[in-house]
Amino acid sequence: MAMRIILVTGPIASGKSLFAQRASRWFNAHNRPVKIIELDIYGHEALQNESVIRCLVSLFGKEIMHGEKVDKTALASCAFRTPENVEKLNLCTHGFIGERASHDIDIFLSENSQGIVVLETPFPVSYLKMHGFEKLCEGSFVVAVSAPREIRLKRCSRRYADAEMRDALQQKYGVYTGDYCINNESNELDFNRYVDTICQSIGDQL
Q: Which of 57, 77, 118, 168 is deepest in the core (most CB within 10 A)?
């Protein structure tokens, strides 16, 4: 029996959330409950964890703090400056993220015998496996979402002033590959059609 996890990977602004939302609607229409999990959300939660905060301060200094809380702007300024600093950030946060994700996935799947988890992550599977996320990868259906860089930068520049730097750093994580690959440069109708085809294929294997 295949794992009931769809791991959606891809670089920044490639369309991972669009895929997850469309997949959720497709499976719900076929009487299968879906839980969408974004690893980035757990990353934000990690910044409130005392152990994670101590680790970050030890590596980046107290200038990342505002009182007793992490100053996210100051942390981003330090962490996204170099690939080495990104690795330091990941070192402090990945343990917490992995535990929280695994916990929530286990609970949802145990309570929903027909349930499916759609897990969004900006990291390629090869990177996840090397950084303690093997449990999330093993047996999962992997969908790699892509889009041309100029399109992605245009999309994410609305959210991040340092979009180009973030994109350049993500490219160092490795190559995005999967059981299914989908390019999100086409129109919405075509993209949705591709998503539905992938969901049908995965559904047939569950």
A: 118
